[in-house]
Specification:
Blueprint (H helix, E strand, L loop, with lengths): L7 E4 L3 H12 L4 E4 L7 H6 L3 E3 L1 H6 L3 E4 L3 H15 L5 E4 L3 H4 L10 E7 L3 H9 L6 E7 L5 H11 L2 H4 L1 E3 L2 H16 L1 H16 L4 H10 L1 H19 L2 H14 L2 H15 L2 H11 L3 H12 L1 H11 L24
Parallel strand pairs: 1-2, 1-4, 2-3, 4-5, 5-6, 7-8
Antiparallel strand pairs: 6-7
The chain binds nicotinamide-adenine-dinucleotide (NAD) and magnesium ion (MG).
The site of nicotinamide-adenine-dinucleotide (NAD) has 27 residues, from helix 1, helix 4 and strand 6.
Pfam families: KARI_C, KARI_N
Family: Belongs to the ketol-acid reductoisomerase family.
GO molecular function: isomerase activity; ketol-acid reductoisomerase activity; magnesium ion binding; NADP binding
């Protein structure tokens, strides 16, 4: 296969799938979307003007197949659909290395196997592309029987708009472990638990929940925007001397060495496969704990007060910010 303009099949049309399909099409690639007939995102893909085929049909003609279904269905998808139907010498692309790194998928030897992981949610991958920017991408090569694997990964990442920001080479191991750690310890798990704990502390001390909400959740956006623009240095330039002094003396009291020790425990569980084994078992059991945790987050008092306060921010429509272009609530499809 030449690496001029590979034909691309995108399997899955959720957060990443939709963004990749739209960006790659706008970058001049031929894109077909593979979805189960009658599945939840088929209508969206058709409304966006894509040819939608069954996964088996979509991948049969493709030079490159991007696997953008939930991680926990990829093993079965590979066994049932990809391994039997992909062309000899085609390229199998993942947006997260989990299944390959933890040996849940052992790809056919004739396939190039690569990873292109945008460092952002799908809606942002699309929005940044549309406004002429990009989300940084990291890429890796797991196997390269054709000699084209790296070039294909770079071509795909550029098609996503990633080259406008930055493209960095990694390994499946590094991407998988750092991605899981980031979302668990800092981005999703760490940040949401920090905000909830701060809110609870203020409300339990008798302060108004509305004011607690503004202090620990709403204002966080301002701070994170400053981090994004110029690092912690820039945040410090923008806050008062009093806030800086408080940051210096109280930040390390809250996030102390014991927190870092527990971060290391989290990382160890990721590295030795414990996290992935537990997640697979939870998924196979039909997500009983996952649903309980999800409900507890939704029922937290900060969500109730936040809903009322955000109703007054008329500019926060359904289609603003990181949500623009996002699909409806992605569903998990456990057995
Ligand atoms: P998602 O849950 O948003 O969407 C999944 C899509 O796959 C949906 O269209 C769904 O209908 C479809 N699907 C589910 N089971 C299927 C099956 N058996 N056959 C065919 N289609 C099926 O998923 P996502 O969050 O975009 O994640 C996709 C991949 O991208 C994962 O590997 C994930 O780790 C990776 N990733 C996600 C993000 C993110 O921000 N969401 C960021 C980087 C990487
Ligand atoms: Mg991630």
């Amino acid at each position: 296969m030449s690496n001029a303009t590979p034909s691309i099949a995108i399997v899955g049309y959720g957060s990443q799938g939709r963004a990749h399909a739209l960006n790659l099409r706008d970058s001049g690639f031929q894109v077909v979307v593979g979805l189960r007939p009658g599945g939840p995102t088929e209508r969206q893909a058709k409304a966006d003007g894509f040819t939608v085929r069954t996964p088996a049909d979509a991948v049969a003609d493709a030079d490159l197949v991007a696997v953008l279904t939930p991680d926990m269905v990829q093993k079965q998808l590979y066994a049932d659909v990809l391994a039997p139907h992909m062309k000899q010498g085609a390229c199998l692309l993942f947006a997260h290395g989990l299944n390959v790194h933890f040996d849940m998928i052992a790809p056919r030897a004739d396939l190039d196997v690569v990873l292109v992981a945008p460092k952002g949610p799908g809606a942002l991958v699309r929005r940044e592309y549309e406004i002429g920017r990009g989300v940084p991408c990291i890429y890796a090569v797991h196997q390269d029987p054709t000699g084209n694997a790296e070039q294909l990964a770079l071509t795909y990442a550029a098609g996503l708009g990633g080259a406008r920001a930055n493209i960095i080479r990694t390994t499946f191991k590094e991407e998988t472990e750092t991605d899981l750690f980031g979302e668990q310890a800092v981005l999703c798990g760490g940040a949401s638990s920090l905000v909830q704990a701060g809110f609870e502390t203020l409300v339990e001390a008798g302060y108004q929940p509305e004011i607690a909400y503004y202090e620990v959740l709403h204002e966080l956006k301002l701070i994170v925007d400053l981090f994004y623009e110029g690092g912690i240095t820039r945040m410090l330039e923008f806050v008062s001397e009093t806030a800086q002094y408080g940051d210096f003396v109280s930040g390390p009291r809250v996030i102390d060495a014991s927190v870092k020790a527990r971060m290391k425990d989290v990382l160890t569980d990721i590295q030795n496969g414990t996290f992935t084994r537990n997640w697979q078992a939870e998924y196979d059991a039909g997500l009983p704990n996952y649903r309980k945790f999800q409900q507890a987050d939704k029922d937290h008092p900060i969500e109730h007060v936040g809903k009322q306060l955000r109703a007054k921010m008329t500019w926060l429509g359904e289609q603003t910010g990181a949500q623009a272009g996002a699909p409806a609530q992605p569903q998990s499809e456990a057995a």
